[in-house]
Amino acid sequence: MALTDTWLKGQNGRARAAVEEHADREGMGVRITPQGKITFQLRYRYHGTAKRLDLGSYPLMSLKDARAEAQRLRGQHEQGHDPKVVRLLEKQAILQADSVEQLFRAWHEAYCVKNKKGHHDILRSFEIHVFPSIGKLPAEKVTLHEWLGLLEKQAAIRPGIAERILINAKQMLKWAVRRRLIPASPLAGINAKEDLQIKKVPGSRTLAPDEIARVWRAIERSRIAAKNKLFLKLCLMYGCRNGELRLAEKTHFDFEKRVWIIPPGNHKLGHATGKPLLRPITTATEPLIREAMALSAGSAYLFTNTGSTDPMGTSAPLALPYNVMQWLRRHEKFEMEHWSVHDLRRTARTNFSTLTEPHIAEIMLGHRMPGAWQVYDHYHYLPEQAKALEGWAARLQALTAPGASGEAVPPPASRGRRVYSQLTAVVAP
Question: What is the C-alpha to C-alpha distance for residues 333 and 326, in angstroms, rounded to an integer?
Answer without folding.
Answer: 9
